[in-house]
Each structure stands twice: as C-alpha cells, then as structure tokens.
Design a protein that fits this description.
Blueprint (H helix, E strand, L loop, with lengths): L6 H25 L5 H29 L14 H27 L5 H15 L25 H12 L3 H28 L3 H16 L8 H7 L4 H22 L5 H21 L3 H20 L5 H6 L2 H13 L1
Helix pairs in contact: 1-2, 1-10, 3-6, 3-7, 4-5, 6-7, 6-9, 9-10, 9-11, 10-11, 10-13, 11-13
Length: 330
C-alpha cells in the first residue's frame, strides 16, 4: 500500500485474512476429497511457515532497499490543552478495553451454539474425519453438509493441535481476547479514514467502547455477540469480516483515482475477506457480497465511474463460488 500510516496494524489484519482465506481453500478442498483433518493440519502448518518466511523476506527487502521513511510524519498538536484532552480520552478508552477483555474471559458462558462450535473443535483435535460425529453426543453420523462449508471450529482445532492447548481454552480464553483487539483495530482504522483530527479518533474509539459496554439490550445484539460470543461464526462475521470489508471499501473509494496497484490489492483483499466470511458462517456467502455490491454501487455512483463496478463485482467471486457450492452439496 502506498499509504504507510498504521502499516503494522494493516499488515497484521490483511495478512490474517489471507491466512484464513488459504485455510478455507485448503480445508474445503480436503474435506470434499479425502476428508482428513490431520492432513490439513500438516499441509497448513507448512503453508504457515512459508507465509511467515515470505513476509519476513518481503519486509527485509523493503527495509534494505527502500530509502524513504516508512511512516508519514503527522503534524503534532500545538495546543497543550488539546493534547491533554486527547491523552485522557485514550487512557479512558484503554481502561474500558482492558476491562472488557478481562470480563469476556471471566464471564464466559456456554450456550447452544457454543456446544456445537466447541464440540466440533474438541473432537476435531482427535478425529481425522471432519463433520462425521454429532458434537452434542459424540455419536457417528452422516457427513454434515449444512455446516461443512463454514469450518471455523476447525480453526480452533488446528490451533489446539499445534499449540497443545485444549480447544475449549482457546475458544473461551484466547480467541475472544484476540478477536476483540482485532475488532477495535478495525474500528481504529475506520476512524483514521473518517475523522480529521486526532481528538476525533480518540473520541470515536471511546464512544465505540461505551456502546459495546452497554449494548447488552438483547442476546442477539451486535454488542452482545462481540463481547460474549465472538468465538462463534456469526459473531465473528459481524464483528470482524463485515467491518473489515467496510474499511476495504473505504480504501477502494479513496484509491479510485490513485495507483492501479493499490486498487488491484484492494480487489484481492476484498476477495480474501469473502473467503473469511464464508469460513465463519454460511450466511457470510450471502451477506458479505450484498454489502460489497451495495458499497460498490455507492462508490461508482459517487465517483461517476461505472467501469469500476466490474472488478468490484469480480471480488465477490469467491463468495459466489462458495454459495454455489453450498447449494450443490445441500
């Protein structure tokens, strides 16, 4: 990306969706052929190492050969009072964030969906045949065609097998903290795009944290999903994949008249994020493309450039492919 602001956070988020998108491709391919999760773990572990080495090499080459500064220096606040207000807002936000991460682990509770997700993840650690057992009883059953194209529980299984930490610990104590941090990271990037001043960014983040803190007006609200059920697919879709897709559309709108390589990268990231949405839940195959196409229409209408609608629509191809595959196997 030509915009070097928040490069570390962008690299982690964009790398994560490529990482999870590759996991979706590998596990679905294996599931519909040999159906051996242990083989998936072996293949994806090598892929993980290869991606890590590739990222390290690319970062090293850019550091050695690129002479200009990597970060854009921002104008410092001249007003001490404004700087103090901004610092106070960030401190209050940080306290609320730490409190939320502690509470999401301390007050974790099982529900109906949790019994399914953690049940599948737990037997996935020890049983190579995917979706071959009833997660509630452990009995063998026919191949589960309803949930097989959204194998998010097997991400937990993979992490459990590689780390030797139990699947329930990862699902209840590790993933919630990580995904909450990632969700706030996405909101921060969105704030940097839509806010003009530093104080507006900190105020935006504080308001978001307060909305999430007091949003438990229903067990189905987005705030409740993020704080208590983010380890589950539908909650991860609403808390991670959709906001990240919205941010990518913002970047796409800004880069319409910029460098072509940035636009191509945004198309690829939108497609990878569609695979991640499908990984989380089958609803992602329909909700995410609708959001992307609606956002694309708004961008093309605002820029009065309807030629860009075709590559934007093409970025929904992975989601469309997963949706067609779901209709076929069902």
């Amino acid at each position: 990306l030509s915009d070097k602001r928040n490069l570390l956070l962008k690299s982690y988020l964009f790398g994560l969706i490529v990482y999870l998108g590759l996991f979706q491709v590998i596990i679905i391919t294996n599931m519909l052929t040999v159906n051996n999760f242990f083989q998936v773990c072996t293949i994806f572990s090598y892929v993980s190492v290869a991606l890590a080495l590739l990222g390290t090499i690319i970062a090293g080459v850019r550091k050695l050969w690129k002479r200009e500064a990597c970060a854009v220096t921002e104008k410092q606040c001249s007003d001490r009072r404004q700087m103090l207000e901004n610092s106070i807002l960030w401190i209050v936000f940080g306290v609320i964030l730490v409190f939320q991460m502690i509470q999401t682990v301390r007050l974790t509770y099982p529900d109906g969906d949790d019994a399914y997700y953690v049940g599948v993840a737990t037997y996935g650690v020890n049983v190579p045949q995917m979706y071959s057992r009833v997660p509630y009883t452990g009995e063998y059953t026919e191949f589960d065609t309803r949930h097989c194209l959204a194998p998010f529980p097997y991400v937990i299984s993979f992490l459990s097998r590689m780390s030797k930490i139990s699947a329930s610990t990862i699902a209840h104590s590790i993933l919630p903290v990580l995904f909450i941090l990632l969700a706030y990271g996405i909101y921060y990037l969105i704030a940097k795009e839509v806010c003009k001043e530093k104080r507006e960014v900190s105020l935006f983040m504080l308001l978001i944290s307060l909305l999430l803190l007091f949003g438990n007006y229903s067990v189905y609200s987005m705030e409740t999903f993020l704080m208590t059920r983010i380890r589950q697919g539908k909650a991860s879709l609403g808390s991670f994949a959709l906001p990240l897709g919205f941010y990518l559309l913002l970047l796409m709108a800004k880069s319409m008249e910029g460098k072509k390589k940035d636009r191509v990268l945004h198309y690829i990231l939108l497609g990878c994020n569609g695979l991640v949405a499908a990984l989380f839940t089958t609803m992602g195959n329909f909700i995410y493309p609708c959001m992307v196409m609606l956002g694309s229409l708004c961008i093309c209408f605002g820029k009065k450039d309807w030629k860009k609608i075709f590559p934007l629509a093409l970025s929904c191809a992975p989601s469309a492919l997963m949706a067609v595959l779901y209709l076929i196997i069902r």
